[in-house]
Protein backbone atom coordinates (compact mmCIF):
# COMPACT_ATOMS: atom_id res chain seq x y z
CA UNK A 1 0.00 0.00 0.00
CA UNK A 2 2.81 2.41 0.88
CA UNK A 3 4.65 1.51 -2.34
CA UNK A 4 1.53 2.19 -4.39
CA UNK A 5 0.99 5.52 -2.70
CA UNK A 6 4.61 6.40 -3.31
CA UNK A 7 4.23 5.73 -7.05
CA UNK A 8 1.02 7.77 -7.20
CA UNK A 9 2.71 10.64 -5.36
CA UNK A 10 5.67 10.56 -7.74
CA UNK A 11 3.35 10.62 -10.74
CA UNK A 12 1.43 13.59 -9.35
CA UNK A 13 4.48 15.53 -8.18
CA UNK A 14 4.99 19.00 -9.61
CA UNK A 15 8.19 20.87 -10.33
CA UNK A 16 8.75 24.35 -8.96
CA UNK A 17 9.98 26.71 -11.67
CA UNK A 18 11.47 29.34 -9.37
CA UNK A 19 13.62 26.89 -7.35
CA UNK A 20 17.25 26.73 -8.57
CA UNK A 21 18.96 23.40 -9.04
CA UNK A 22 21.02 22.68 -5.94
CA UNK A 23 24.26 20.83 -6.47
CA UNK A 24 24.64 18.63 -3.41
CA UNK A 25 23.87 21.36 -0.89
CA UNK A 26 23.70 19.81 2.54
CA UNK A 27 22.12 21.14 5.68
CA UNK A 28 23.61 24.64 6.29
CA UNK A 29 23.59 24.04 10.03
CA UNK A 30 27.04 22.46 10.27
CA UNK A 31 28.55 20.40 13.04
CA UNK A 32 30.23 23.48 14.50
CA UNK A 33 26.96 25.39 14.85
CA UNK A 34 25.19 22.37 16.34
CA UNK A 35 28.00 21.97 18.87
CA UNK A 36 27.70 25.67 19.66
CA UNK A 37 24.01 25.37 20.49
CA UNK A 38 24.63 22.21 22.51
CA UNK A 39 27.42 23.91 24.46
CA UNK A 40 25.17 26.93 24.94
CA UNK A 41 22.56 24.78 26.68
CA UNK A 42 25.23 23.17 28.84
CA UNK A 43 26.83 26.48 29.85
CA UNK A 44 23.74 28.62 30.50
CA UNK A 45 21.26 26.77 32.74
CA UNK A 46 18.38 29.17 32.02
CA UNK A 47 18.48 28.27 28.30
CA UNK A 48 18.49 24.55 29.01
CA UNK A 49 15.66 24.94 31.52
CA UNK A 50 13.62 26.93 29.00
CA UNK A 51 13.89 24.22 26.35
CA UNK A 52 12.80 21.53 28.80
CA UNK A 53 9.91 23.67 30.06
CA UNK A 54 8.67 24.25 26.51
CA UNK A 55 8.86 20.50 25.97
CA UNK A 56 6.75 19.81 29.06
CA UNK A 57 4.29 22.66 28.52
CA UNK A 58 3.43 21.50 25.01
CA UNK A 59 1.08 18.92 26.57
CA UNK A 60 -0.03 15.50 25.38
CA UNK A 61 -1.59 14.56 22.07
CA UNK A 62 -4.57 12.33 21.35
CA UNK A 63 -5.93 10.88 18.12
CA UNK A 64 -9.62 10.41 17.33
CA UNK A 65 -10.86 8.15 14.51
CA UNK A 66 -14.32 7.05 13.42
CA UNK A 67 -14.12 3.29 14.05
CA UNK A 68 -14.45 2.15 17.67
CA UNK A 69 -12.15 -0.87 17.33
CA UNK A 70 -9.54 1.20 15.54
CA UNK A 71 -9.81 3.88 18.25
CA UNK A 72 -9.01 1.42 21.06
CA UNK A 73 -6.08 -0.15 19.23
CA UNK A 74 -4.76 3.24 18.14
CA UNK A 75 -4.83 4.53 21.74
CA UNK A 76 -2.89 1.45 22.88
CA UNK A 77 -0.35 1.98 20.11
CA UNK A 78 0.15 5.66 20.91
CA UNK A 79 0.71 4.93 24.60
CA UNK A 80 3.01 1.91 24.28
CA UNK A 81 4.89 2.25 21.00
CA UNK A 82 8.63 1.94 21.47
CA UNK A 83 10.56 5.18 21.06
CA UNK A 84 14.30 4.98 20.41
CA UNK A 85 16.07 2.55 22.76
CA UNK A 86 14.49 3.26 26.14
CA UNK A 87 11.33 5.33 25.57
CA UNK A 88 7.66 4.57 25.00
CA UNK A 89 4.68 6.53 23.74
CA UNK A 90 4.18 9.07 21.01
CA UNK A 91 4.41 11.93 23.51
CA UNK A 92 8.00 10.90 24.29
CA UNK A 93 8.77 10.93 20.58
CA UNK A 94 7.17 14.33 20.04
CA UNK A 95 8.97 15.74 23.10
CA UNK A 96 12.39 14.81 21.75
CA UNK A 97 11.30 15.93 18.29
CA UNK A 98 10.32 19.37 19.64
CA UNK A 99 13.57 19.66 21.60
CA UNK A 100 15.62 19.02 18.46
CA UNK A 101 13.43 21.45 16.54
CA UNK A 102 13.91 24.25 19.05
CA UNK A 103 17.63 23.69 19.50
CA UNK A 104 18.71 23.17 15.89
CA UNK A 105 15.80 24.47 13.79
CA UNK A 106 15.15 21.08 12.14
CA UNK A 107 13.98 17.69 13.34
CA UNK A 108 13.82 14.32 11.60
CA UNK A 109 11.97 11.22 12.76
CA UNK A 110 11.40 7.77 11.30
CA UNK A 111 8.61 5.21 11.51
CA UNK A 112 10.26 1.80 11.89
CA UNK A 113 8.43 -1.17 10.35
CA UNK A 114 8.50 -4.66 11.84
CA UNK A 115 6.77 -7.51 10.02
CA UNK A 116 4.73 -5.16 7.87
CA UNK A 117 3.49 -3.22 10.90
CA UNK A 118 4.58 0.00 12.54
CA UNK A 119 6.72 -1.23 15.43
CA UNK A 120 8.73 1.75 16.70
CA UNK A 121 9.49 5.45 16.35
CA UNK A 122 13.01 6.78 16.03
CA UNK A 123 14.40 10.31 16.52
CA UNK A 124 17.25 10.75 14.03
CA UNK A 125 20.29 12.79 14.98
CA UNK A 126 21.01 15.69 12.64
CA UNK A 127 24.76 15.15 12.95
CA UNK A 128 24.41 12.02 10.78
CA UNK A 129 22.01 13.45 8.19
CA UNK A 130 22.07 15.67 5.13
CA UNK A 131 18.94 17.52 4.01
CA UNK A 132 18.54 18.64 0.42
CA UNK A 133 15.70 20.43 -1.34
CA UNK A 134 14.36 18.95 -4.57
CA UNK A 135 12.37 20.44 -7.42
CA UNK A 136 9.08 18.93 -6.21
CA UNK A 137 8.94 21.10 -3.07
CA UNK A 138 10.19 18.22 -0.97
CA UNK A 139 13.14 17.42 1.27
CA UNK A 140 15.54 14.62 0.39
CA UNK A 141 17.13 13.01 3.44
CA UNK A 142 20.51 11.29 3.19
CA UNK A 143 22.70 9.57 5.77
CA UNK A 144 26.41 10.25 6.09
CA UNK A 145 28.43 7.03 6.29
CA UNK A 146 32.10 6.14 6.19
CA UNK A 147 32.03 5.55 2.44
CA UNK A 148 29.94 8.58 1.54
CA UNK A 149 26.34 9.74 1.52
CA UNK A 150 23.45 7.27 1.25
CA UNK A 151 19.97 8.48 0.28
CA UNK A 152 17.03 7.11 2.29
CA UNK A 153 15.02 4.76 0.06
CA UNK A 154 11.66 5.08 1.84
CA UNK A 155 10.97 8.78 2.39
CA UNK A 156 7.30 8.02 3.12
CA UNK A 157 8.43 6.60 6.48
CA UNK A 158 10.22 9.83 7.44
CA UNK A 159 8.87 12.97 9.08
CA UNK A 160 10.80 16.21 8.61
CA UNK A 161 9.99 19.60 10.15
CA UNK A 162 11.57 23.04 10.06
CA UNK A 163 11.16 25.90 12.54
CA UNK A 164 10.60 29.32 10.95
CA UNK A 165 12.29 28.48 7.63
CA UNK A 166 13.23 31.31 5.25
CA UNK A 167 11.26 31.67 2.03
CA UNK A 168 12.03 28.87 -0.39
CA UNK A 169 14.25 26.97 2.03
CA UNK A 170 13.66 23.66 3.87
CA UNK A 171 16.12 24.58 6.60
CA UNK A 172 14.72 26.03 9.78
CA UNK A 173 16.06 28.58 12.21
CA UNK A 174 17.14 27.60 15.70
CA UNK A 175 15.39 29.35 18.56
CA UNK A 176 18.83 29.87 20.11
CA UNK A 177 20.11 31.91 17.18
CA UNK A 178 21.26 35.31 18.42
CA UNK A 179 21.97 34.08 21.94
CA UNK A 180 25.69 33.13 21.65
CA UNK A 181 26.84 36.77 21.90
CA UNK A 182 24.53 37.60 24.80
CA UNK A 183 25.43 34.35 26.57
CA UNK A 184 29.14 35.03 26.07
CA UNK A 185 28.79 38.38 27.84
CA UNK A 186 26.78 36.76 30.63
CA UNK A 187 29.35 34.01 31.12
CA UNK A 188 32.15 36.60 31.24
CA UNK A 189 30.34 38.39 34.06
CA UNK A 190 29.87 35.16 35.97
CA UNK A 191 33.49 34.15 35.43
CA UNK A 192 34.70 37.57 36.57
CA UNK A 193 32.52 37.32 39.67
CA UNK A 194 34.12 34.00 40.50
CA UNK A 195 37.64 35.38 40.04
CA UNK A 196 36.88 38.47 42.14
CA UNK A 197 35.39 36.44 44.95
CA UNK A 198 38.37 34.14 44.82
CA UNK A 199 40.64 37.15 45.18
CA UNK A 200 38.65 39.27 47.61
CA UNK A 201 36.38 36.79 49.34
CA UNK A 202 39.19 34.42 50.32
CA UNK A 203 41.16 36.94 52.38
CA UNK A 204 44.95 36.96 52.00
CA UNK A 205 47.30 38.81 54.28
CA UNK A 206 50.57 40.70 53.79
CA UNK A 207 52.90 40.36 56.78
CA UNK A 208 55.66 43.00 56.81
CA UNK A 209 58.53 43.05 59.31
CA UNK A 210 60.74 46.14 59.62
CA UNK A 211 63.90 45.22 61.57
CA UNK A 212 65.70 48.00 63.41
CA UNK A 213 69.17 48.51 62.09
CA UNK A 214 71.10 45.74 60.39
CA UNK A 215 70.44 42.39 61.93
CA UNK A 216 72.33 39.24 61.26
CA UNK A 217 70.26 36.27 60.13
CA UNK A 218 67.38 38.32 58.73
CA UNK A 219 66.52 35.59 56.22
CA UNK A 220 66.32 32.95 58.95
CA UNK A 221 64.20 35.21 61.08
CA UNK A 222 61.81 35.87 58.17
CA UNK A 223 61.54 32.13 57.53
CA UNK A 224 60.65 31.43 61.13
CA UNK A 225 58.05 34.18 61.13
CA UNK A 226 56.49 32.80 57.94
CA UNK A 227 56.26 29.32 59.44
CA UNK A 228 54.62 30.64 62.60
CA UNK A 229 52.12 32.68 60.59
CA UNK A 230 51.25 29.70 58.39
CA UNK A 231 50.81 27.53 61.44
CA UNK A 232 48.54 30.10 63.09
CA UNK A 233 46.34 30.54 60.00
CA UNK A 234 46.03 26.82 59.25
CA UNK A 235 45.03 25.90 62.77
CA UNK A 236 41.40 24.96 63.33
CA UNK A 237 41.48 26.52 66.80
CA UNK A 238 42.15 30.24 67.37
CA UNK A 239 45.88 30.90 67.87
CA UNK A 240 47.89 34.01 68.57
CA UNK A 241 50.73 35.11 66.37
CA UNK A 242 53.66 36.47 68.34
CA UNK A 243 56.52 38.32 66.61
CA UNK A 244 59.42 40.49 67.69
CA UNK A 245 60.02 43.87 66.10
CA UNK A 246 57.93 46.26 64.02
CA UNK A 247 55.48 43.87 62.33
CA UNK A 248 52.41 45.03 60.34
CA UNK A 249 49.66 42.79 58.99
CA UNK A 250 47.24 43.95 56.29
CA UNK A 251 44.51 42.16 54.33
CA UNK A 252 45.17 42.08 50.60
CA UNK A 253 42.24 43.47 48.64
CA UNK A 254 40.11 44.26 51.65
CA UNK A 255 39.69 47.88 50.57
CA UNK A 256 38.61 46.98 47.02
CA UNK A 257 34.97 46.66 45.99
CA UNK A 258 33.43 44.17 43.58
CA UNK A 259 31.55 45.79 40.70
CA UNK A 260 27.77 45.60 40.84
CA UNK A 261 26.50 42.83 38.57
CA UNK A 262 22.73 43.04 39.06
CA UNK A 263 22.06 45.49 36.23
CA UNK A 264 24.22 43.93 33.47
CA UNK A 265 23.17 40.38 34.40
CA UNK A 266 19.51 41.35 34.29
CA UNK A 267 19.98 43.05 30.92
CA UNK A 268 21.50 39.87 29.47
CA UNK A 269 18.80 37.67 31.03
CA UNK A 270 16.09 39.93 29.63
CA UNK A 271 17.46 39.37 26.13
CA UNK A 272 17.55 35.60 26.66
CA UNK A 273 14.02 35.47 28.09
CA UNK A 274 12.68 37.64 25.28
CA UNK A 275 14.19 35.29 22.71
CA UNK A 276 12.90 32.10 24.37
CA UNK A 277 9.37 33.45 24.81
CA UNK A 278 8.80 32.25 28.39
CA UNK A 279 7.49 34.46 31.21
CA UNK A 280 10.26 35.28 33.73
CA UNK A 281 8.37 33.80 36.69
CA UNK A 282 8.43 30.35 35.06
CA UNK A 283 12.22 30.47 35.15
CA UNK A 284 12.48 31.52 38.79
CA UNK A 285 13.22 35.17 38.01
CA UNK A 286 11.47 37.31 40.62
CA UNK A 287 11.16 40.46 38.55
CA UNK A 288 8.46 42.92 39.51
CA UNK A 289 5.26 42.32 37.55
CA UNK A 290 1.61 43.09 38.11
CA UNK A 291 -1.17 40.52 37.98
CA UNK A 292 -2.35 41.98 34.69
CA UNK A 293 1.14 41.67 33.22
CA UNK A 294 1.41 38.02 34.34
CA UNK A 295 -1.92 37.27 32.66
CA UNK A 296 -0.74 38.85 29.41
CA UNK A 297 2.52 36.90 29.58
CA UNK A 298 0.52 33.69 30.03
CA UNK A 299 -1.53 34.56 26.93
CA UNK A 300 1.66 35.13 24.94
CA UNK A 301 3.03 31.78 26.14
CA UNK A 302 -0.21 30.08 25.05
CA UNK A 303 0.16 31.50 21.55
CA UNK A 304 3.80 30.32 21.43
CA UNK A 305 2.82 26.79 22.41
CA UNK A 306 0.00 26.79 19.87
CA UNK A 307 2.55 27.67 17.17
CA UNK A 308 4.70 24.67 18.15
CA UNK A 309 1.62 22.46 18.17
CA UNK A 310 0.83 23.50 14.60
CA UNK A 311 4.23 22.12 13.59
CA UNK A 312 3.84 18.87 15.54
CA UNK A 313 0.25 18.14 14.49
CA UNK A 314 1.11 17.02 10.90
CA UNK A 315 3.84 14.77 12.33
CA UNK A 316 1.44 13.06 14.72
CA UNK A 317 -1.24 12.79 12.03
CA UNK A 318 1.15 11.15 9.57
CA UNK A 319 2.17 8.57 12.18
CA UNK A 320 -1.44 7.77 13.06
CA UNK A 321 -2.56 7.56 9.42
CA UNK A 322 0.35 5.26 8.58
CA UNK A 323 -0.52 2.94 11.47
CA UNK A 324 -4.21 2.87 10.47
CA UNK A 325 -3.35 2.10 6.83
CA UNK A 326 -0.97 -0.73 7.76
CA UNK A 327 -3.55 -2.22 10.12
CA UNK A 328 -6.26 -2.23 7.46
CA UNK A 329 -8.36 0.68 8.74
CA UNK A 330 -9.40 3.86 6.99
CA UNK A 331 -6.51 6.33 7.34
CA UNK A 332 -8.68 9.12 8.69
CA UNK A 333 -8.14 10.64 12.13
CA UNK A 334 -8.12 13.92 13.99
CA UNK A 335 -5.38 15.16 16.30
CA UNK A 336 -6.42 16.76 19.60
CA UNK A 337 -4.25 18.40 22.25
CA UNK A 338 -4.84 18.80 25.96
CA UNK A 339 -5.50 22.20 27.45
CA UNK A 340 -2.20 23.98 27.98
CA UNK A 341 -2.82 25.00 31.61
CA UNK A 342 -5.50 24.65 34.22
CA UNK A 343 -5.86 28.42 34.18
CA UNK A 344 -7.12 28.18 30.60
CA UNK A 345 -9.85 25.75 31.65
CA UNK A 346 -10.88 28.09 34.48
CA UNK A 347 -11.03 31.04 32.08
CA UNK A 348 -13.08 29.04 29.60
CA UNK A 349 -15.48 27.94 32.35
CA UNK A 350 -15.88 31.55 33.53
CA UNK A 351 -16.50 32.68 29.96
CA UNK A 352 -19.19 30.00 29.47
CA UNK A 353 -20.80 30.98 32.80
CA UNK A 354 -20.88 34.66 31.87
CA UNK A 355 -22.28 33.89 28.42
CA UNK A 356 -24.99 31.67 29.90
CA UNK A 357 -25.85 34.34 32.47
CA UNK A 358 -26.09 37.00 29.77
CA UNK A 359 -28.30 34.71 27.65
CA UNK A 360 -30.57 34.13 30.66
CA UNK A 361 -30.92 37.88 31.29
CA UNK A 362 -31.69 38.50 27.63
CA UNK A 363 -34.32 35.74 27.70
CA UNK A 364 -35.94 37.20 30.84
CA UNK A 365 -35.99 40.69 29.33
CA UNK A 366 -37.54 39.33 26.17
CA UNK A 367 -40.20 37.53 28.20
CA UNK A 368 -40.97 40.69 30.16
CA UNK A 369 -41.26 42.60 26.91
CA UNK A 370 -43.67 40.04 25.49
CA UNK A 371 -45.80 40.15 28.65
CA UNK A 372 -45.93 43.94 28.44
CA UNK A 373 -47.07 43.79 24.83
CA UNK A 374 -49.80 41.29 25.74
CA UNK A 375 -51.09 43.54 28.53
CA UNK A 376 -51.18 46.53 26.15
CA UNK A 377 -53.26 44.51 23.66
CA UNK A 378 -55.68 43.48 26.43
CA UNK A 379 -56.12 47.10 27.50
CA UNK A 380 -56.80 48.22 23.95
CA UNK A 381 -59.43 45.51 23.52
Structural commentary:
By secondary structure, the protein is α+β, with helices and mostly antiparallel strands. The radius of gyration is 34 Å and the shape is flat. α2 (about 30-45) crosses α3, α2 packs across α6 and α6 packs antiparallel against α8. The chain has 3 domains: about 1-180 and about 300-335, no CATH class; about 185-250, no CATH class; about 345-380. It has helices spanning about 1-10, 30-45, 45-55, 70-80, 90-105, 180-200, 220-235, 260-275, 290-325, 340-380; strands at about 60-65, 80-85, 85-90, 105-115, 115-125, 130-135, 140-145, 150, 160, 205-210, 245-250, 335. The N and C termini lie far apart (about 80 Å). β7 (about 140-145) and β8 (about 150) form a beta hairpin.
Can you describe this structure in just a few lines?
This protein is α+β, with helices and mostly antiparallel strands and 381 residues long.
Characteristic key phrases:
single chain; 381 residues; alpha+beta; 5-stranded mixed beta sheet
Helical content band:
40-55%
How many strands appear in the DSSP assignment? 12
State the helix count: 10
**Cα Rg:** 34 Å
Overall pLDDT: 80
- Helix/strand class: alpha+beta
Report strand %.
15-25%
Amino acid sequence: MLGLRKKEAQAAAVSVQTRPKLQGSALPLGAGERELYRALRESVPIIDASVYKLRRLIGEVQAVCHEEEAQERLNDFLQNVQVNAAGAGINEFLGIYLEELITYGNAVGEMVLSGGRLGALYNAGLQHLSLEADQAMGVKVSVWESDGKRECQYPELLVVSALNPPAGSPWGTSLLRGLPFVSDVLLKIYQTLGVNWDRLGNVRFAVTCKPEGVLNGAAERARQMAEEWKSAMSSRDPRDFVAVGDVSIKAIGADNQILESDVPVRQMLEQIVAKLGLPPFLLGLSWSSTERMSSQQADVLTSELEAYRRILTPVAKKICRTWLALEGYRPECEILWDEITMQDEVDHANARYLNARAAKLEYELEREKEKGNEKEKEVEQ
